[in-house]
Specification:
Layout lengths: L1 E5 L7 H13 L4 E7 L4 H11 L7 E7 L11 H18 L3 E4 L3 H7 L14 E5 L11 H15 L4 E4 L2 H7 L5 E3 L12 H7 L8 E5 L8 H7 L7 E5 L4 H8 L2 H6 L2 E4 L5 H10 L2 E4 L9 H8 L4 E4 L2 H10 L2 E4 L4 H13 L10 H6 L2 H13 L15
Parallel strand pairs: 1-2, 1-4, 2-3, 4-5, 5-6, 6-7, 8-9, 8-11, 9-10, 11-12, 12-13
Helix pairs in contact: 1-16, 3-4, 7-11, 8-9, 8-14
């Protein structure tokens, strides 16, 4: 059987999640193709290089053939969904796969649920669409949000392909007649380095609390608000690792004394897997203070796999997971005063994970669990014959 894993987007976690799905399927006896963006611009080219390094050793063929939205990510609408569906349909025609996986399929699923044209395989049960944050299951953001949520939910219910998700609320919102498989977060490999040496890599020479903000730093992620709220003369360090938007860079530049004193450290670039995992090793607490993000968080999954407590938003999937599984401390990240107060408190009394309540969550989000769940979802069996564990419920 030939399996096509198609990911046209390249910002944030998209390519790394797609790579890990392809690698999990590559451990089976089936032929696996990973199709990614054909863009030759510097940023997508660098992201593709980092995400696909060594993937051929997992028995996966790489094809740089897809066209996606210019920004590297997709809004949930017919325009961006149509761009992705057209490109994936063309790749299906070229490669003739038996099954298709779209690893970040919110816009694709929305488009397919409408009156749209697409390759027949994309409309069949032989295609699996993985959803990350398509509004459904959430409220509290006004009437426009609610109307859009219901439109998206209706479209998703009309999609013929199989659905999987990283957020438990998606399955709850879709109801019992539209099955949604809950997947673990993709695996992270801890750095083989001590915390002391990891801190030295980032110029941190103390043993006081280090709060990590990792990933891609944009307005939606609210990193500029985190920087603004970081206490002056804090007894600790805010470590920011990943490419920053101009808005975040401006917020960082407004704190020159904190930069000089090492209270804020910044690595403003696209980082490789080793630097990424070293940052988690260097920190004590991982921040997920995203005021405009309500779906699953790859950073939260990485933190849990590396046994780091969370200081994060009280909203959406992040808030649900922190509360339900004792993963750390939650805060209203839309309230700048509440955020600043919570940071001061956390510096004095760092968050911890509840060792009992967090255990089911940690056991689900492991590399073995991810591999088995992906294999069972796509090919109906695991390569080692062991069934994956059931997902924990908040």
């Amino acid at each position: 059987m030939r399996i096509l894993v198609a990911e046209s987007k390249w910002t944030g976690h998209h390519l790394f999640f797609a790579r890990d799905i392809a690698a999990a399927l590559g451990a089976t006896d089936h032929e696996v193709i990973l199709a990614v963006s054909a863009s030759d611009a510097a940023s997508p080219r660098r992201m593709i290089e980092l995400a696909t390094e060594g993937i051929a050793e997992d028995g996966v063929e790489i094809r740089r053939t897809l066209t996606g939205p210019d920004a590297g990510h997709a809004r949930i609408d017919d325009h961006h969904g149509g761009i992705e569906v057209d490109s994936i349909s063309q790749e299906i025609t070229r490669t003739q796969p038996d099954r298709v996986v779209v690893p970040s399929a919110d816009a694709v699923a929305f488009f397919l649920g409408g009156r749209s044209s697409a390759h027949d395989l994309l409309r069949s049960k032989e295609t699996c669409l993985v959803l990350h944050q398509p509004y459904v299951g959430y409220g509290g953001r006004g009437i426009r949000f609610a109307v859009r949520r219901e439109i998206i939910r209706r479209r998703l219910r009309r999609t013929s392909a199989r659905l999987a998700a990283l957020d438990h609320r998606i399955g709850d919102a879709m109801g019992p007649r539209r099955a949604v498989t809950l997947l673990p977060g993709n695996p992270q490999i801890p750095a083989s380095i001590s915390k002391l040496d990891a801190r030295h890599r980032f110029g941190i020479e103390h043993d006081r609390p280090v709060f990590l903000a990792a990933g891609e730093h944009s307005h939606r992620k609210g990193t500029h608000q985190l920087v603004d709220a970081w206490p002056a003369e804090a007894e600790g360090t805010l470590l920011i690792v990943g490419r920053c938007s101009d808005e975040v860079r401006a917020a960082i530049a407004s704190r020159p004394e904190d930069l000089d004193a090492g209270r804020i450290r910044v690595v403003d670039e696209i980082v490789d897997a080793r630097t990424y995992s070293t940052a988690f090793q260097a920190c004590d607490i991982v921040t997920t203070c995203y005021p405009r993000h309500f779906g699953a968080s790859g950073i939260l999954h990485s933190a849990i796999q590396m046994e780091r407590p969370i200081f994060g938003s009280n909203y959406g999937c992040i808030g649900d997971c922190i509360r339900s599984f004792g993963l750390g401390v939650e805060v209203d990240c839309r309230d700048s005063e509440a955020l600043a107060t919570a940071l001061r408190k956390a510096l004095q009394q760092p968050p911890t994970m509840d060792p009992v309540r967090s255990r089911p969550f940690l056991d689900f989000h492991t590399a073995e669990s991810f591999r088995r769940h992906v294999q069972m979802l796509v090919v109906g069996a695991t390569s080692d014959g062991i069934d994956p564990p059931p997902p924990p419920r908040p």
